[in-house]
Structure formats: structure tokens, C-alpha cells
Design brief:
- The structure holds two protein chains of two kinds.
- Helices cover 56% and strands 2% of the residues of chain A.
- Chain A is mainly α.
- Chain A has a two-stranded antiparallel ribbon with strand order 1-2.
- In chain B, a hairpin with a 5-residue loop joins strand 3 and strand 4.
- The chains are: A mainly alpha, B alpha+beta.
- Chains A and B meet through helix 1, helix 2 and helix 6 of A and helix 1, helix 2, strand 3 and strand 4 of B.
Chain lengths: 245, 235
């Protein structure tokens, strides 16, 4: 039996708590953003956002109104932070960080994955638990999360913690970096969900049960997005015809 | 917040959020948890608060000037009508040894300060302005605040607008009872004849069109705080 324990229960629980927390934080954050969908200080212009004063679509928002969204944002932030710290502490103490921290050769391996997905390479590069591109995404996410949390604190307490706000270039810029951190998290998450369904749907149950069948891994299936979603039929070598006597 | 409280809050919020699809405000059942989180945040924010944390305007920031938005809750800009209501005066009362009624001239005779500071709006924008007025600490000294006073209510003639504060934020060195803006007497759009102004509170806490400042033993909510905005509203 090729089924192996892939995800510890702590990883599974923190994964789904994180999913809910991110959805609520992004939705309520965009509702708050829509109260002033721009970055410029009053009486100034802002250099670096092309959509100043254009609100994001309502269906992306959560909380109903500004106060509702703020209340959700300032409650869920604790869930996001504590859950993230539990995950990081577990990954560190339990050794899982070895599957995530970049090592020599990852850039080369990432390039090979790009070539494979672009049909410039025939066979799936050999990988460990994650492929090199995937590993990079999972490694970057906690940094984007930390940036979101720190910039969030900076715009929550720009007077009481003005030293923190100053690190990010003042309130206007801290609010901008907070927005950028959200964009990075959303981008990584959207790619992640797309790849789960397009390349490795078998990993979805494993995030609930923890079990994963290595025979169904993308490497075993030689799977690209929407290619080889079903396991390879085992190659049967027919018996040679009986020799004539 | 201990571990058990966190699990209760986290578990409750997460499962509430799963049900949230029903409407964009989230499920009503989450309201209790959100209020619980607000109370805990209030504790965190009051613990973080320091008188020594001073708002500093960033180098090179422009004054908002006439780009400073004006908000009021009355149907039209609230203007004190002297012919109907008599001369405007600010009542300072409650838990004080020396309750007073101060005319605009009285206010101007008290110590004066001008602060060029940021305005932090709950909507997310900021604006730089210079506010001139009486430092709140001077006013508190003048009326002799009693030790039992822990909160201050700022009341206005803009309908029933008022917001109450924790005393420590009111006593911040940059909190003023302002009658001047950018070197001119305050105009009706921004709260004439006088308003409270402090960079340590979000805009909605800074009551315009003041009529009364009341020192209290307990908090007294506020116009926006009673509708769901955080009562503390500190930055």
C-alpha cells in the first residue's frame, strides 16, 4: 500500500483555520479599503497606485459596512496571528521546515518545473514532498503574512507605535504595503488553489485525512495543469508468444 | 487572553465565518464574539497607550487645507444661532471642583497651543492640519478634575452627537479644545465655535460643535460607538 501519512493533524487544522481567517481578513479588509479606496494623504497625490478612488467590487467585500468590517478585521486578526504562530512553531519543532526552506539547486529545479509546465521538458522533474516552485510559494507565504501583520499593526497604532509605522515609511506607505502584502497573499493562494485542482486534486483529501497515495502524485502521473489527471495505467508487458517447438 | 479563551474565540469565529455566506455582514450569532474581541482589544489598546507617544507629521507632508473633509450628522452644517440660543458657551462640569461656563473669549484667555498633527480618519485617510486651542490638561487643571473621574464625555449641538473618552487619552499632551484651524478661527464646516481635537483618537471621537465637556466615573458610549464603531477609537 503506497498510502502514507502526509500531513500532521496540526498542519491540517492550521491550514483550514488559515483559509477561513484569510478569506475573512481579505474580505473585511477590502470593505475597509472601500471607505477610502486611495492612498494619498488629503491634499496630496500618491505615486504608485493606478486605481486611486476606484472601489473594489462589492462581491469581494465582507462585513456589510465599515464598522462591521472593522469589527471582523480586528477580531479575526488574533486568529490569523495565533494560528500562524502555532503553524510556524510546529513546522520548526517537528522538522517539516526541511521540506520548505530553500536549498542549493532550487533555482535550477524551479526552472526545470517551468520548462516541464511549458512542454519544453517531457518528464516531471524528480522532487521531494513538494516541487521546487511549490516549495518557493509555501516558503514565501509566511513572509507575506508577517508583512501583512506588521504593516497592519503599523496602521492600527500609528501614534502609539510610531517607530513601527516609521519603518514602513509612515502611515500612507504602511497602508500601501499592507495592501501589497494582501495582494501577494491572494496571488499565492489563488495559484495554490488552481494548482490543487488542475494538477494534484488527490492532495485535497489529504488535507482532511492526512493520507496521501504516492502512486497518484503529480510526479508519478507526469501531470501538468489539466494533463494526466488520472493515474497512468500500469504498463503491462505481455508474455512473449510461446516459442514454437 | 488565555489559551482556553483563545480556543473559544477562535473556534467560535471560524465556525461563525463558515456560516457567514448568509449575508455580507456575517451571521448575527457572531456579534457576541465580535463584541468580546472588541472588549479584549480595548484592554490591549489601553495597555499600549503612552502619554509619551507623540504624533509627528512626516517630513515633506503637505497641509490638507481645504481638502480636509467635513462631516456632521445634522441635515445641514450646524451653526450656533445666537439670536435663538443666546451667546455660545462651553460648559465644563461633572466630577470637577470648579464647574465653569466658558465663552469663546474665555477659552482664548486660557493657555494656548498650536499643534501641526495628523488627522486619522476611520475611513483610512489622513490629513495634516494645524489646530489651535486650549491644551486639555490646562482645562482639566482649571476646573480641578476629581480623582474619581475616569472618563470624559464631549457633547455637541450637532443633533445628539457626543463621544466619550478614557481620561488618559484626553490628558494626552496633544489633545486640545480647538477654536482655530490653520491660523484662522474655526469655521462651521470643521466644528465652530470649538471642538475637541487629538491625533491619538480617530476623527469620529473628536466631537465638533462642542457645548459640554462632562467628567464622569464611567464611560458613556457615543454617537458612532453606539452604532457599532469601536468605542476606544485610538490610534
Amino acid at each position: 500500500m503506497a498510502t502514507k501519512k502526509r500531513h500532521h493533524w496540526i498542519v491540517r487544522v492550521t491550514h483550514w483555520v488559515n483559509f477561513v481567517a484569510i478569506v475573512i481578513m481579505v474580505g473585511s479588509g477590502l470593505e475597509i479599503f472601500n471607505a477610502y479606496p486611495a492612498f494619498a494623504r488629503k491634499g496630496e497625490l500618491f505615486c504608485c497606485y493606478p486605481f486611486e478612488h476606484k472601489p473594489v467590487p462589492d462581491w469581494l467585500t465582507f462585513g456589510g459596512w465599515l464598522a462591521g468590517a472593522r469589527n471582523w478585521h480586528f477580531a479575526m486578526m488574533w486568529v490569523l496571528v495565533v494560528n500562524g504562530l502555532v503553524y510556524l512553531a510546529f513546522v520548526y519543532l517537528h522538522g517539516e521546515w526541511r521540506d520548505l526552506v530553500p536549498r542549493k539547486g532550487d533555482i535550477r529545479d524551479s526552472w526545470q518545473m517551468v520548462k516541464f509546465y511549458a512542454f519544453k521538458r517531457k518528464d516531471h522533474p524528480h522532487q521531494g514532498k513538494h516541487n521546487a516552485l511549490q516549495k518557493t510559494a509555501y516558503f514565501l507565504l509566511p513572509f507575506a503574512g508577517a508583512l501583512a501583520v506588521l504593516t497592519g499593526i503599523a496602521i492600527w497604532k500609528p501614534v502609539q507605535l510610531s517607530w513601527l509605522t516609521a519603518i514602513f515609511g509612515g502611515y500612507v506607505w504602511a497602508r500601501y504595503w499592507h495592501f501589497i502584502a494582501m495582494v501577494v497573499i491572494v496571488t499565492l493562494s489563488v495559484i495554490h488553489v488552481f494548482m490543487v485542482f488542475a494538477v494534484d486534486p488527490y492532495s485535497l483529501p489529504s488535507m482532511f485525512t492526512g493520507n496521501y497515495d504516492e502512486k497518484l502524485s503529480p510526479e508519478a502521473r507526469n501531470a501538468r495543469p489539466f494533463y494526466h489527471l488520472f493515474p497512468r495505467r500500469a504498463r503491462v508487458t505481455p508474455l512473449p508468444p510461446p516459442e514454437a517447438t | 487572553m488565555d489559551r482556553r479563551e483563545f480556543l473559544a474565540l477562535g473556534g467560535g469565529l471560524v465556525s461563525a465565518a463558515f456560516l457567514a455566506a448568509c449575508d455580507s455582514r456575517g451571521p448575527r450569532s457572531a456579534d457576541k464574539l465580535l463584541r468580546y474581541a472588541e472588549r479584549k482589544n480595548l484592554g490591549v489598546e489601553r495597555a499600549l497607550y503612552r502619554h509619551t507617544a507623540i504624533d509627528v507629521v512626516q517630513h515633506g507632508a503637505h497641509d490638507a487645507g481645504n481638502k480636509l473633509p467635513s462631516y456632521y450628522v445634522s441635515p445641514t452644517v450646524p451653526v450656533w444661532d445666537e439670536s435663538a440660543r443666546g451667546k455660545w458657551a462651553l460648559e465644563v462640569s461633572g466630577l470637577v471642583g470648579n464647574p465653569v461656563r466658558l465663552t469663546l473669549e474665555d477659552l482664548q484667555r486660557l493657555p494656548r497651543v498650536s499643534n501641526r498633527v495628523n488627522h486619522y480618519c476611520v475611513e483610512g485617510w489622513t490629513a495634516v492640519e494645524t489646530w489651535t486651542g486650549v491644551p486639555f490638561t490646562e482645562l482639566a487643571k482649571f476646573v480641578r478634575v476629581a480623582p474619581e473621574a475616569h472618563y470624559v464625555d464631549f457633547q455637541s449641538f450637532d443633533d445628539d452627537y457626543h463621544e466619550s473618552w478614557d481620561l488618559e487619552s484626553a490628558m494626552h499632551p496633544q489633545t486640545v479644545v480647538a477654536y482655530g484651524l490653520d491660523g484662522k478661527m474655526l469655521e462651521p464646516a470643521h466644528g465652530a465655535p470649538a471642538r475637541v481635537y487629538s491625533p491619538v483618537k480617530l476623527g469620529y471621537k473628536n466631537t465638533k460643535y462642542l457645548t459640554k465637556i462632562v467628567f464622569m466615573p464611567v464611560m458613556n458610549g457615543g454617537y458612532w460607538s453606539d452604532q457599532g464603531y469601536e468605542w476606544y477609537g485610538g490610534v
